[in-house]
Design a protein that fits this description.
There is one protein chain. The longest helix is centred in the first third of the chain and has 17 residues, at 41-57. The chain has helices at 6-10, 18-32, 41-57, 60-69, 92-103, 113-122, 141-146, 222-227, 285-297, and strands at residues 133-140, 148-156, 159-167, 176-179, 195-202, 207-210, 213-221, 229-235, 238-244, 253-256, 271-278. It has two domains: 6-71 and 130-202, Urease metallochaperone UreE, N-terminal domain (HSP40/DNAj peptide-binding domain); 207-297, Urease metallochaperone UreE, N-terminal domain (HSP40/DNAj peptide-binding domain). Strands 6-7-11-10 form a four-stranded mixed β-sheet. The protein has a three-stranded mixed β-sheet with strand order 1-5-4. It is α+β, with helices and mostly antiparallel strands and 299 residues long. Strand 2 and strand 3 form a beta hairpin. It comes from Vibrio algarum. Residues 5-70 form the J domain. This is DnaJ C-terminal domain-containing protein.
Length: 299
């Protein structure tokens, strides 16, 4: 079965910005996330398809390749390498030595050619450091918050190698991890450059980061919001019941101090539970009548 076009999967145009792509992914990820569709194989397949499209289109080099070749561009991907430079200059001394040797006597005491080419041969080229290189790696939202290890295959000094990347706890979007001496080879005996891994973070279905605060988007039905009740909250390792006061409005936030994100500097924010009041649809006849009766009592 042929793969669907990645832009069609996310429902965006081919000139969509990275912001539009992230927005579309987040919406679809929430819709098809396994936590919201337990046991639904179709939803799980759609979630994987959306995730694959997102990872390709938010990686600049992969997107450029996909736009040019489509899915075929990834069927036999790899990194090629050219051969060493031609060694055809090895006869330089012999060629010029013979040519000037035949004329050496004609120049008498002037004979500066031997000195000139002797100096050129003895001059040592200056060592140069290799260029720095940069790659992007996408990690899960939870891994960026809690820290993790990820093994990726990247070209190092011209060869494909598996690199073990330690994702620091609390790393932010587009922060970089440095690997000294893993960049392009140096010239004339110079040191290799550095390799930088730019971290991209895959959006979560219902969690969001704002500085060091962790925002958990939670849904409650209209009766709970109106009459009050309890809401079970799951935010990373934090699992608890939150009391919802009567008359809670859509968008209200409840703060749990010190349960947010711990940054790389050791600073910890708060957990903010943001309420979304869900309006019921497809009411039964009895439910509609009850709502009509309730409506009649409002001034």
């Amino acid at each position: 079965m042929s793969k669907r076009d990645y832009y069609s999967v996310l429902g965006v145009s081919k000139d969509a910005s990275e912001k539009d792509i992230k927005k579309a992914y987040k919406k679809l990820a929430m819709k098809y996330h396994p936590d919201k569709n337990p046991g639904d194989a179709t939803a799980e397949g759609s979630f994987k398809e959306v995730k694959e499209a997102y990872e390709t289109l938010t990686d600049t080099s992969k997107r450029r390749k996909y736009d040019q070749f489509g899915h075929a561009g990834f069927e036999n991907s790899g990194f090629g390498g050219g051969q060493g430079r031609s060694q055809g200059f090895g006869g330089f001394e012999d060629i010029f030595g013979d040519a000037f040797g035949q004329r050496r006597q004609g120049f008498g005491g002037a004979g500066g050619f031997d000195d000139v080419f002797s100096q050129a041969r003895n001059r040592q080229p200056r060592a140069q450091k290799g260029q720095d290189v940069e790659y992007s790696v996408t990690v899960d939202f939870v891994d960026a918050i809690q820290g993790a290890e990820k093994v990726v295959e990247l070209p190092v000094n011209g060869e494909q190698k598996k690199i073990n990347i330690k994702i620091p706890k609390g790393i932010k979007e587009e922060e970089k991890i440095r690997f000294s001496g893993k960049g392009a080879p140096g010239l004339n005996g110079g040191p290799a450059g550095n390799m930088f891994i730019k971290i991209l973070i895959r959006p979560h279905a219902y969690l969001e980061r704002d500085g060091n605060d962790l925002i958990c988007h939670s849904e409650v039905n209209i009766t709970t919001a109106t009459l009050g009740g309890e809401l079970e909250v799951q935010a990373l390792e934090n699992r608890f019941k939150l009391k919802i006061p009567a008359g809670t409005q859509n968008g209200r936030k409840f703060k749990v101090t010190g349960k947010g994100v711990t940054s790389r500097k050791g600073e910890t924010g708060d957990l903010l539970v943001k309420i979304k009041v869900v309006t019921p649809t497809n009411l039964t006849r009895e439910q509609t009548e009850l709502m009509e009766q309730f409506k009649a009592t409002l001034v």
